[in-house]
Amino acid sequence: MTTAAGEITVRAALDDAAARLASAGIADTRREARILVAAALGWDAAEVFGRPEAGLDRTARVRFAEFLARRAAREPMSRILGHREFWSLRFALSPETLDPRPDSETLIEAALAELPDRTRPYRVLDLGTGSGCLLLALLSELPHAEGLGVDYAFGAVETARRNAAALSLGDRAHFMVGDWSTAIEGEWDVILANPPYVASSEIARLMPEVADYEPHTALDGGPDGLSAYRRLAPELVRLGVPGAIAVVEAGAGQAAAIAAIMVEAGLAMRDVRHDLSGVDRCLVLGQR
User: Fold this and answer.
1) Which of 53, 80, 145, 148 could make a disulfide contact with 122, Cβ separation 3.0–4.6 Å?
2) Is residue 3 domain-resident?
3) Tens digit of each residue's pLDDT (9 = 90 or more) over 61-92
4) Looking at residue 120, what DSSP letter applies?
5) Is residue 220 left, alpha or beta, with left meaning phi > 0 and alpha meaning psi from -120 to 50?
6) End-of-domain residue from the set 55, 73, 91
7) Are residues 229 and 248 both part of a single domain?
8) Residue 88 belongs to what domain range?
9) Is residue 83 a contact partner of residue 91, using CB atoms and an 8 Å limit?
């Protein structure tokens, strides 16, 4: 359907997008179609409901065609839009950063449960910071805390810095390029980490949105998915102050094996928390 001026209507664009996305094997096609049309028009997604007969001008049609082609190729929606919401905050993404997932919000919930006095000037370290989502989400809840995010990828660090500035947290959040075992000194009250935990042989079997678009170095956990935890464990012991906590993400089915690695390194298990799907997603560890 077109308007009197010959423009494709919102309704027609939605129908076209839903059909093409379904052919690509994507679920919830109407919702995704609304997001794509809204992005092409520069609207809020809710506005699409109320203006089905509005037309897409040439600029919007070109943008819509590009967005639809990218999503049909299984590029994640967040990569197309350039941002992802995490902990009710907006985070820009880049090719060097993982796409923050709701499952990882479990780490923020776990850390806050261990920090009842939110007015204290905690020192927070985020290992493998990526977009900075973990560090910045936690700092948003701890008004007197400061933190450092470390990542080996320069592009990730630059993205995290931009996110900190956009969230008005740049004065309390600092970022550096480096390796866990060589770049970091000092003593930290809270250590956050979401290490690579996918077994190398499993990466190609992941859904295309992950296997084809996420940085593999942030996914690849070695032959058994646990290589990064073996490197991480002694660093958590070295860097935490007495009474410090470490909050570490785990892949599905890995919690027990990771706990064994951490305990052998000298840490104490404090809690295991599951995500909304019931997966044991987060280990809370303490200094002995």
Assistant:
1) 145
2) no
3) 999 999 999 999 999 999 999 999 999 999 99
4) S
5) beta
6) 73
7) yes
8) 83-287
9) yes
